[in-house]
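User: I'm putting together notes for a lab meeting next week and I want to include a structural view of one of the chains we've been expressing. I don't have a solved structure, so I'd like a prediction I can at least talk through. The sequence is below, exactly as it appears in our construct file.
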Amino acid sequence: QVQLVESGGGSVQAGDSLRLSCAASDPTFSNYGMGWFRQAPGKEREFVAAISWSGGNTYYGDSVKGRFTISRDNAKNTMYLQMNSLLPEDTAVYYCAAVIAGFPSRAYEYDFWGQGTQVTVSS
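Assistant: Thanks for the context. Below is the predicted structure for the 123-residue chain, given as structure tokens.
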């Protein structure tokens, strides 16, 4: 069982930046593909970004491409999401997730989830 804890959320202005972190309890963190998802009130969970176990492959949702960067540090059992040029529509609870195989964009394929961290972007 992998426990994931997100941090780094907060309230910012449009155009600002934030960096989210996802710390994993499992020392075999490097075996997992990882992803970031977000969910705004009244909306379905949306794929944000995913990264392979090695960090060598990444994949982004269309709404964040060019603004967000996913990365990981396997030595620290931690994944990151650097969010630049934030927009009010980026407001959501952001979740990190781990998957045993691959690094998919569909939420149902992920095996473990964190509790989420709130990001609020005001105009």
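A couple of points you could mention at the meeting. The chain is about 0% helix and 50% strand. Residues 38 and 44 are 9 Å apart (CA to CA).

User: Perfect, that's what I needed.
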